[in-house]
């Protein structure tokens, strides 16, 4: 007998560092469409742990913009800053897999250069503090151990990109779960929140694709269910940079009438995602966009399936559901 399918729970998790721009609208729209196409729940969580970057009142602006676009969330909105007890409990469960680290970013870069790694933007932690702090050094951050032998290879099936694999040992190393400034790291907080809220499907921008293996590793160590993932393309500016507040992205919602939002924001965001609704109102837009999203994903899945049939098998240590093993 086939077990009943777990009810779909999706989420959108903006940071209140600035109003929503067209790039963040694309991510919100994709997650909302996926939840509605699967007759599921759509949650909103404000990721406000980085208090130094939060802008007062922006969280309410974001919520108002979602409502003006016709995106009503289910249940109550949650704020990460009200959930710190959950992160402390997760840290306790991780136990000896966590250790204090005294290294600064510059020290890690210098270590890369000494090891001939070029000191690139991807900082692979060399394990300097793994065996304990050097004399005179004070702990700055807390890191999570990743297995050394055999390497920890995490694979998963992304609903947009197909099979994705990452060697955490070689490409990431031990990574931070509490930062030097005392704030909880994104990787830990998002895993704990998704688990606590019962999120079954995560739809977000492809800029976070690289973070997913780290989150899967944490999910397994904490005994949490593994969500399904879908990473949509990100909007970039004329220089090819991800559209963000730091790259000059402007808010899409300036209080203009709803009809203006439809033309200036919703329709362009839908076209970016590969949809082409021809609507004259926001309500009609969603009536067209939800089934169009389901059809598009079905077509993409069929194309990936055909391509997979022609692709050689992955190495045996890269099984999509292989547990990474306990941290040494």
From TrEMBL:
<dbReference type="GO" id="GO:0006424">
    <property type="term" value="P:glutamyl-tRNA aminoacylation"/>
</dbReference>
<protein>
    <recommendedName>
        <fullName>Glutamyl-Q tRNA(Asp) synthetase</fullName>
        <ecNumber>6.1.1.-</ecNumber>
    </recommendedName>
</protein>
<comment type="similarity">
    <text>Belongs to the class-I aminoacyl-tRNA synthetase family. GluQ subfamily.</text>
</comment>
<keyword id="KW-0436">Ligase</keyword>
<keyword id="KW-0648">Protein biosynthesis</keyword>
<feature type="binding site">
    <location>
        <position position="245"/>
    </location>
    <ligand>
        <name>ATP</name>
    </ligand>
</feature>
<feature type="domain" description="Glutamyl/glutaminyl-tRNA synthetase class Ib catalytic">
    <location>
        <begin position="11"/>
        <end position="279"/>
    </location>
</feature>
<dbReference type="InterPro" id="IPR022380">
    <property type="entry name" value="Glu-Q_tRNA(Asp)_Synthase"/>
</dbReference>
<keyword id="KW-0862">Zinc</keyword>
<dbReference type="InterPro" id="IPR020058">
    <property type="entry name" value="Glu/Gln-tRNA-synth_Ib_cat-dom"/>
</dbReference>
<keyword id="KW-0067">ATP-binding</keyword>
<dbReference type="GO" id="GO:0004818">
    <property type="term" value="F:glutamate-tRNA ligase activity"/>
</dbReference>
<feature type="region of interest" description="Disordered">
    <location>
        <begin position="306"/>
        <end position="328"/>
    </location>
</feature>
<feature type="binding site">
    <location>
        <position position="186"/>
    </location>
    <ligand>
        <name>L-glutamate</name>
    </ligand>
</feature>
<dbReference type="GO" id="GO:0006400">
    <property type="term" value="P:tRNA modification"/>
</dbReference>
<dbReference type="InterPro" id="IPR000924">
    <property type="entry name" value="Glu/Gln-tRNA-synth"/>
</dbReference>
<feature type="binding site">
    <location>
        <position position="129"/>
    </location>
    <ligand>
        <name>Zn(2+)</name>
    </ligand>
</feature>
<dbReference type="GO" id="GO:0008270">
    <property type="term" value="F:zinc ion binding"/>
</dbReference>
<feature type="binding site">
    <location>
        <position position="204"/>
    </location>
    <ligand>
        <name>L-glutamate</name>
    </ligand>
</feature>
<keyword id="KW-0547">Nucleotide-binding</keyword>
<feature type="short sequence motif" description="'HIGH' region">
    <location>
        <begin position="14"/>
        <end position="24"/>
    </location>
</feature>
<feature type="binding site">
    <location>
        <position position="101"/>
    </location>
    <ligand>
        <name>Zn(2+)</name>
    </ligand>
</feature>
<dbReference type="Pfam" id="PF00749">
    <property type="entry name" value="tRNA-synt_1c"/>
</dbReference>
<feature type="short sequence motif" description="'KMSKS' region">
    <location>
        <begin position="242"/>
        <end position="246"/>
    </location>
</feature>
<feature type="binding site">
    <location>
        <position position="47"/>
    </location>
    <ligand>
        <name>L-glutamate</name>
    </ligand>
</feature>
<feature type="binding site">
    <location>
        <position position="125"/>
    </location>
    <ligand>
        <name>Zn(2+)</name>
    </ligand>
</feature>
<dbReference type="InterPro" id="IPR014729">
    <property type="entry name" value="Rossmann-like_a/b/a_fold"/>
</dbReference>
<feature type="compositionally biased region" description="Low complexity">
    <location>
        <begin position="319"/>
        <end position="328"/>
    </location>
</feature>
<comment type="function">
    <text>Catalyzes the tRNA-independent activation of glutamate in presence of ATP and the subsequent transfer of glutamate onto a tRNA(Asp). Glutamate is transferred on the 2-amino-5-(4,5-dihydroxy-2-cyclopenten-1-yl) moiety of the queuosine in the wobble position of the QUC anticodon.</text>
</comment>
<feature type="binding site">
    <location>
        <begin position="11"/>
        <end position="15"/>
    </location>
    <ligand>
        <name>L-glutamate</name>
    </ligand>
</feature>
<keyword id="KW-0030">Aminoacyl-tRNA synthetase</keyword>
<feature type="binding site">
    <location>
        <position position="103"/>
    </location>
    <ligand>
        <name>Zn(2+)</name>
    </ligand>
</feature>
<dbReference type="GO" id="GO:0005524">
    <property type="term" value="F:ATP binding"/>
</dbReference>
<keyword id="KW-0479">Metal-binding</keyword>
<dbReference type="GO" id="GO:0005829">
    <property type="term" value="C:cytosol"/>
</dbReference>
<dbReference type="InterPro" id="IPR049940">
    <property type="entry name" value="GluQ/Sye"/>
</dbReference>
């Amino acid at each position: 007998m086939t077990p009943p399918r777990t009810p779909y729970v999706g989420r959108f998790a903006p940071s209140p560092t600035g109003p929503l721009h067209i790039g963040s609208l694309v991510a919100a729209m994709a997650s909302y469409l996926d939840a509605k196409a699967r007759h599921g729940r759509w949650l909103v969580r404000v990721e406000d742990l980085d208090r130094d970057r939060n802008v007062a009142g922006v969280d309410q602006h974001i919520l108002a913009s979602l409502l003006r676009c016709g995106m009503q969330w289910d249940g109550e909105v949650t704020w990460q800053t009200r959930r710190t007890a959950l992160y402390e409990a997760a840290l306790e469960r991780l136990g000896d897999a966590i250790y204090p680290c005294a290294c600064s970013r510059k020290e890690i870069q210098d270590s890369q250069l000494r090891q001939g790694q070029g000191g690139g933007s991807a900082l692979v932690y060399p394990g300097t503090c793994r065996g304990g702090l050097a004399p005179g050094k004070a702990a700055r951050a807390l890191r999570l151990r990743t297995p050394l032998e055999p390497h920890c290879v995490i694979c998963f099936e992304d609903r947009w990109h197909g099979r994705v694999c990452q060697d955490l040992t070689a490409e990431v190393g031990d990574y931070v779960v509490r930062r030097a400034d005392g704030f909880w790291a994104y990787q830990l907080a998002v895993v704990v929140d998704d688990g606590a809220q019962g999120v079954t499907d995560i739809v977000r921008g492809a800029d976070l694709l690289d973070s997913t293996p780290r989150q899967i590793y944490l999910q397994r160590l904490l005994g949490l269910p593994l969500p399904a993932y879908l990473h949509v393309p990100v909007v970039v500016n004329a220089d090819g940079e991800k559209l963000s507040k730091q790259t000059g992205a402007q808010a899409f919602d300036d209080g203009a009438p709803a009809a203006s939002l439809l033309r200036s924001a919703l329709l362009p965001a839908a076209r970016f995602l590969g949809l082409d609704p021809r609507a004259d109102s926001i309500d009609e837009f969603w009536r067209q966009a939800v089934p169009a999203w389901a059809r598009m994903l079905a077509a993409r899945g069929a194309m990936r399936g055909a391509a997979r049939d022609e692709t050689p098998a992955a190495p045996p240590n890269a099984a999509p559901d292989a547990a990474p093993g306990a941290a040494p």
